[in-house]
Amino acid sequence: MKLPLSWIRDYVDIKISPEEIAERLTFAGLEVEQMDYIGLPRHSVIPPITERPDLAWDREKIVVGKILAVNQHPNADRLTLAMVDVGKGEPIQVVTGAPNIKVGESGHLVAFALEGATLFDGHQDGWKPMTLKKSKIRGIESGCMVCSEKELGISDEHEGIILLPDDAPIGAPLADYLGDVVFNIKINPNMSRCSSVIGIAREVAALTGQTLRDVPTKVIAKGAPIAEQIKIVIENSELNPRFTAMLIRGIAIQASPFWMQQRLKLAGMRPINNIVDVTNYVMIETGQPLHAFDYDKLFGRAGKRAPTIITRLAESGEEIETLDGAKRKLDPFTILVCDTRGALSIGGVMGGADSEVDAHSKNILLEAASWEYLNIRRTVQSQHLPSEAAARFSRGIHPSQAVIGLKRAIEMMRELGGGQIAKGIVDEYPGKPKKVVIHLPIAEVKRQLGVELSAKEITRLLESVGFQVESAKLKVKSKAAHLPLTTYRVTAPDHRLDVDGTDDVIEEIARLYGYANIPDSRMNDELPPQHTNVDLEQEELVRDLLIDAGLQDVITYALTTPEHEAMLSLDAAHPAIPARAYVRIENPISAERAVMRQSLAPNLLDLAAANSRYRARVAMFEIGLVYWTRGANDSLLSREIANELPEDQDRALPLERRRLALALTGPRDEMSWQGADTAQVDFYDLKGVIESLLAGLHIGGAQFAPANHPLYHPGRAAMLKIGDAEIGAFGELHPLVRERFDLPARAVLIGEFDLDALLAYVQPLYKTGALARYPAVAQDLAIVVDENVAADRVHALIVQTGGALLSSATLFDVYRGDQIAPGKKSLAYALTFQADDRTLTDDDATKLRGKIVQRLQRELGAQTRGA
Fold first, then answer.
1. What would the pLDDT profile of 450-501 be if each residue is shown by its tens digit?
2. What is the tens place of the pLDDT at every residue in 533-569?
3. How many Cα atoms sit within 13 Å of 42 on the Cβ side?
4. Which of 47, 714, 724, 727 has its CA 20 to 30 A from that of 207?
5. What pLDDT was estimated at residue 724?
6. Which domains are present in the chain?
7. Which residues on neighbouring strands pair with residue 826, listed in sequence order?
């Protein structure tokens, strides 16, 4: 936000330098990002962060001049000769091509630069300094110049010269009349109350110990009462808590005076006419946006009767043409200002073309209203329609500010355009908020800030920015000493929408006292207990284990569409995701982000497809939440939290579960000069990752059972079970599903697991064995079993039979072929036998191996290979 220092001086006396003001504002939370010096010398050691260099106007050579006569240049049709009085000596003749002075005119007061003055070149792009020298222009000698704004560094305007008001003193240094400093201040969301001249002036007054002057609100109203000429109806007081209006008749639409145009330009606004300029001027000055309607247009739309202004929500399919010429289809949440015939403006955002003030307008209805800030923000985003008014409303403006801005603006319109103001104000105020009252224990200030401030000093600081402070009889207990403390009753001013508790008031005291003035102090409160977040630590362990296994951690959108997730299912009769209603977003950011996801797999497959276009090997995982509408038996919260919620609220919340999804495709290894395994990953690679994860989590007893799941390739999928719990399924993606996600024509492995169910089996303590003291004996075992016998079942029997002396059993080969009967497969295991108390012999190992074979023959009908 840009604000000239001269405007701030209207409301507070300033006795310190602009540089010191900037420093104090910055340390108080209002960061002054830039200071532009208009005609004045820069005292700050900080260089300007703008492409325009500083130009301090020479006090002797750049002055106020008066044009005594304008004659035609004898050798050029587009040039004139102006005689200029500079307050001393003889008038000076200067050649000029300014289009806004004509032959025969006189009396104009101008910015005049004498020979030797330094200006910017008005005829070149950018900001190139030049020094005036005598030269002949089409045969006429001239060494001086009547100046444009570009040449003085005020703005980019160079088409005409500056015409000063009649009160400009002839011969006075121009820097004394027009010189200024413009602060460019970053207004953070927590400081939105300062988005105005009066807001910054209030801060300056508080930080310098000066008194803030009030905004003038005196109105001279002599017209017929407004109550007979307009009626206001508010249909939704939550979105429009207040609507006020005043009427002025017989006003002349014309250019604004120089001083107003100059201030608007320095504040970054473009002057248009006195009506528009007054609304912009008062918005910048008070922070209250306003809107002007052509009253005659409203009167005509009402059938030549007193119009009725209605604020309401947009109807289905309703449209409006806004002042920017665009025809806009309105959302049902958009609040409108209407009459009985239709929409007149989008409340708090932009006016409509049907009631626009134009050059022929004579009677003006001026509106100042209050709008609910979240709804304004939503409308701006939906319509892609940012504006200065909407930027202020979307941060919140208290309804009490409406009348202040309204009175200030209507009187300025009368002063600048004539006319007669109707008596009274129409003011509908159904949503009047309550005053915010906070009880502040004085000792709590010291406890939180670590500095002792007297009650008098605290009162002074708070009252300097508009708080009301009075002693309260209420006694409260100190958090530190548990003793009764005297408190103060603090009432927040209306403009402080950010204040609603004791901590906010104490923060304000610290800000005004100065953070740099608060000494370091030791913490005198008890340290809060530190609780280990077991869930988070376990989740991080899972991430570490999977990253160690060569997978990349990814994050995808939690928002999707039912159609996107339906791509996992080959037909509706056999859905890959259990049928369940989606958790829908009331205000989706796009059609592709309309519901909360029920599975991690679709977005993970999208990401795998995108990466496969430029990477041969893809190995990734995601840990995230899925969201389900709640069933009668679902439990969302832990029992402790659920018991604290009303039953209806517990049922309304969606069910959130942590899920783990993994995806693999491409070669087993990345390319390497040392050689790499370029074979494509298959089912067993993903199974190995899962087994590695289980081992890292020290979870035993896991089982892998064949799965018949519509998402996976038939015969290449498994279900992970621990005890009676089904943790999740994994396997090779079905080829038809793979094609839907535009994945390459190769094996794609995908798995999704209930992470909460998996981590429930992680034990806080686990057993670990000592290093073996005696050597091991290794033997191989190859058996032939029926095709439908799971390797997991064979492995379980081997481990159970081998007992404590079997330290490991590893499947290292699976064979199907000519040497095996049809419907059979060969499984080869590497068996390792080892004892803790002695060295086993080959005979010991052979006997145990024989027992294993006998049990496999008895329970599975297995045969040893070659038997």
1. 888 998 999 999 999 999 999 865 444 444 444 345 789 999 999 999 999 9
2. 889 999 999 999 999 999 999 999 999 999 999 999 8
3. 16
4. 47
5. 87
6. 2-204 (2.40.50.140), 221-428 (3.50.40.10), 437-517 (3.30.56.10), 534-759 (3.30.930.10), 777-864 (3.30.70.380)
7. 784, 815
